[in-house]
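Re-running the complex after MR caught last week's input typo. The corrected sequence lines follow. Everything else is unchanged.
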Amino acid sequence: MKFAIQINEGPYQHQASDSAYFFTKAALEKGHEVFRVFFYHDGVNNASRLTTPPQDDRNVVARWAELAEQHDLDMVVCVAAAQRRGMVDEGEMQRNGKDATNIDPRFRISGLGQLVEAAIQSDRLVVFGD
Amino acid sequence: MSTLHTVNKSPFEKSSLDACLTHVSGGANVLLLEDGVYAATKGTAVEQRVKEALDSVKLFVLGPDLLARGLSEERVIDGINVVDYAGFVDLAAENDKVQAWL
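Corrected-run output:
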């Protein structure tokens, strides 16, 4: 079965990103396909490559990036939500005249159409948030 | 058409569980996760409400989130099924859609 995952909450806030991660991992382990993970609203903060949690704490961003690496996951960050929160990739840096980028390379910035497409293409859309 | 409803907030903090239980129709499945697991425990102010809901809907609770809060499975109201993340995935697959009560 094809799953799409939507995350509306940032890391280390409550539990949405953790729940979504463990759900996604369990789905992949069961042989399901995860069509896309879409980060929306404060969820875009899950994509910051500059995240540095204490060593004895989980690294939410690195954990997503590793899972994406292992399973070739498509992890999309909403562009409008990202711009508001200062989440920047190379393209956005140049387009908006910024002097830095902060998105982990396993994530990509794109539009809301990617969420709509994921909802259409997948059998289930599972939403995690606050 | 069956729906899996997910509730992730404590009934003592938000009204999402009450809204969900008021809305759902017979045969629906409701999964309590994150702080929502508090609603699955015995001896709370919402226990009666939850027990009544069991007459018409199936209730599930995410085991890892119970354990993370120091709640053992013995404290779960009879009739509520404890599932792990793999069980959560199965529930999402078995139902036609998943509705998060955020």
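None of the earlier attempt is carried over here. The longest helix of chain A spans residues 16-29. DSSP finds five helices and five strands in chain A.
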